[in-house]
Specification:
By secondary structure, the chain is mainly alpha-helical. It has 17 helices and two strands. It has one domain (1-461). Strands 1-2 form a two-stranded antiparallel ribbon. Helix 2 runs parallel beside helix 9.
């Protein structure tokens, strides 16, 4: 313990280590604060959408005469469909920077409404964004490398290794150096996690527990990797170059290669194509007879097949059936698009296990419900809500009921999507990959040390 205390004091007295630790803390605090603002903005937007719906409904009801058909009011009315944000999303923002979970749905064709909103300029999105997960997964490993790469080679190069061995056995010296750095890293990671949890108000549930475990295992993985390299007989410069190269490969190159391979193996059309098909299906209906449009509608809603609409006049039942035709035109393309996205997500999760930091990032996004699967689940919930609205208002449209006869307080409310998967399902694969990779790094480093020792003995002989 005395050796550990002395080594810890020596490391902390290093100016570069102190500055780097302070910088990481500042970045972590800033990222957590920004994440909390992002979640609060989403909650405020959801409340504003609900208030806007109430205000719009009151305005439309007061503006139109009571005898006006309700279908005309429904053409303008936008109903809120907001997905509550997880507090963990403040730490792992995932796809929330480029996709919204706060749509306002009209009774018109749905597919275009799902994809017409853009929350961030694509060029800004390509640059990425800073959250606490990025600090812990991408930046913290650099700090681990900085305090570990010369754990043995530095003593040899300074000529103090022989003198240090007079006071303790080499294994005890190395153990003390490792222990001091474990304490330093544990304190830094714990501080970042506690600060992040305090600033964002994360609930202490199973998902938060798995997130904390993954962050700890991620730190231990980089520590094990650094030890596997730094305990060899290479120079400090060689150790630093190897470790920085591995960091670049794991943080940037491997994710980029996997993303490129994923897009090649699973090509997907643009979401804009779905909107175009939906609009084509809708506009083509203007050239059809009303009976042709209604026949297509009755295929999906046979309970209304005994209803007829006049051919020589406009009716809201026919108009919304035209919008339904637009969704029918894009239905197959929409399913194919979602299937490709689902396959991409599954493929990425499977192969990311070969790149533990990437697997950790994807797992944290899943725990925070900010991943692709959660976005698709939200879109499914919106589709179900849109269908409930159509079923609810179909009697009103076919009977041409006036506004005064509609009970607007009984309009269905949006039911948010359930969180995709259990916490253990999201966290266990990445945790297992981190543990196996850490063991592999230590074993590989041990093998290299043994070979180097054997080589030096052969050379001496």
């Amino acid at each position: 313990m005395r050796l550990i205390r002395l080594e810890l004091a020596r490391v902390i007295r290093s100016g570069g280590v102190t500055v780097a630790a302070a910088l990481l803390l500042v970045l972590g605090i800033h990222a957590a604060w920004q994440g909390n603002r992002r979640v609060q903005a989403a909650e405020d937007a959801a409340a504003a959408a609900e208030a806007a719906y109430r205000d719009q409904l009151a305005h439309l009801v007061s503006r139109y005469p009571p005898t006006t058909e309700a279908g005309e009011l429904l053409y303008y009315l936008a109903l809120p469909a907001s997905q509550p944000s997880s507090r963990l999303s403040a730490l792992a923002s995932g796809r929330t920077e480029i996709e919204t979970a706060n749509l306002r749905i009209r009774l018109l064709a749905l597919e275009g409404q799902l994809y017409e909103q853009e929350t961030l300029n694509p060029r800004l999105a390509a640059a990425g964004h800073l959250d606490l997960t990025f600090v812990l997964i991408a930046l913290l490993p650099l700090f681990v490398i900085a305090v570990t790469y010369d754990i043995v080679s530095g003593e040899r190069e300074r000529g103090t290794w022989g003198m240090a061995r007079l006071f303790a056995r080499p294994r005890r010296l190395v153990a003390a150096k490792i222990g001091a750095r474990v304490i330093l890293m544990g304190g830094l990671v714990t501080s970042l996690a506690v600060i992040g949890a305090f600033l964002t108000g994360v609930d202490g549930d199973g998902r938060a527990g798995w997130a904390a475990a993954l962050i700890a295992l991620q730190t231990l993985f980089w520590f094990a990797l650094c030890l596997g390299v730094a305990t060899g007989r290479r120079s400090s410069t060689a150790n630093a170059m190897i470790l920085v190269g591995v960091w670049v490969a794991f943080t940037f190159l491997a994710p980029a290669v996997l993303s490129l391979a994923n897009s090649i193996l699973h090509p997907a059309p643009e979401a804009l194509e779905l909107t175009v098909r939906q609009r084509q299906g809708y506009h083509e209906a203007w050239d059809l007879t009303k009976s042709e449009t209604m026949d297509a509608f009755f295929e999906d809603y046979p309970e209304w097949s005994d209803q007829t609409v006049p051919e020589d006049e406009f009716t809201w039942a026919w108009y919304y059936a035209m919008n339904h035709r637009g969704d029918r035109a894009a239905r197959d393309a929409s399913r194919a698009y979602r299937d490709v996205l689902t396959r991409r997500d599954e493929w990425a999760r499977r192969w990311s296990l070969l790149v533990p930091p990437l697997a950790t990032r994807l797992a944290l996004d899943r725990l925070a419900a900010t991943d692709l699967a959660s976005q698709l689940a939200y879109q499914d919930a919106v589709r179900r809500y849109h269908e409930r609205l159509k079923v609810h208002f179909q009697p009103v449209l076919f009977s041409a009921a006036p506004i005064a006869q509609v009970d607007w307080e009984r309009v269905p409310a949006f039911e948010p999507a359930a969180t995709a998967g259990e916490a253990s399902q999201a966290g266990f694969p990445a945790a297992a990959a981190l543990i196996l990779a850490s063991i592999g790094a230590l074993v590989f480093g041990r093998i290299l040390v043994a070979r180097a020792s054997a080589g030096s003995e052969d050379g001496a002989a």
